[in-house]
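Field reference: sequence -> structure
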Amino acid sequence: MNSYKEMLKESAQRTGNCACMGLDIQWDVLPGRTGDICTDIERFYETLFNEMVKRNLSPAAFKPNIGYYHALDNPREGSFDGSIALAKTLKMVEQLFENIPVILDSKRGDIARSSINYAHEAFDIWKTNAVTVSPYMGSDSVLPFLDEEHARYGIYVLNRTSNPGGKDLQQLVVVDEVDEKELYPLYLAVAHTIARWSQVNGNIGAVVGATHPDELAEIAHYFSSKEIPLLIPGVGSQGASAKETVVVLRDSQYPVELARINSSSALTHPWKKAPAPAAWLDMCISNIENLLEETSV
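Structure field:
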């Protein structure tokens, strides 16, 4: 297996885009539900993925958010329908979209032994290629994800997130030890720390939302010569534009093939509420085609 960074470059070259398809399943809005969670999710993704393959449509990454699947489990009643559905979905991605990286969006982070356990969960249990990680507890929480056993995998450290509440902490002004006596918003201090960590392992990337284009430009410019992968949420339902995001990256001299611009619900259930429209598949495919075109590399 190549390093995660090499996998990013190769998948962007092969697909011709830097898109990431979020797989944030919402069982209650799926078309043709039978009441069997696993069957319904498997059938939905099987139909959508096969149509994508038929049309030669492939994003350069997939990103399931684990919370959407765990919410469908009921472990105290012995039910793990959501987790089983995620396992089946990952298997389909692996078979139909060979060598396309999968990012497990679980936002883990804890003291060293716990982080090693979370790395085992993401890379050995779920067999994904990268995982999202919280930086709040520092280096002894983040770096264990890429210990000797998992050094070739990737992690994306939360940097400047796409949600409105991100500003509550991320825009606080701090003194950044990287540049002594200089004042920075916390998100930029975190970017400096990510750059320092990346010198230990080059597969460390950053999560930076497309919903804040000026801040994205600032961070992308800082990362431009450092080859730090970017995971960029916020496109689609959250309001940001994929096309404009690519322009921001190019204007910042950032290597676009290392970015993954994510859209989730707009690709898998743009109708938002049940019942799903009769033309649901056409709606999904149209949005996927548009995203891949707008994120061409």
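Note: The domain at 4-292 is CATH 3.20.20.70 (TIM Barrel).
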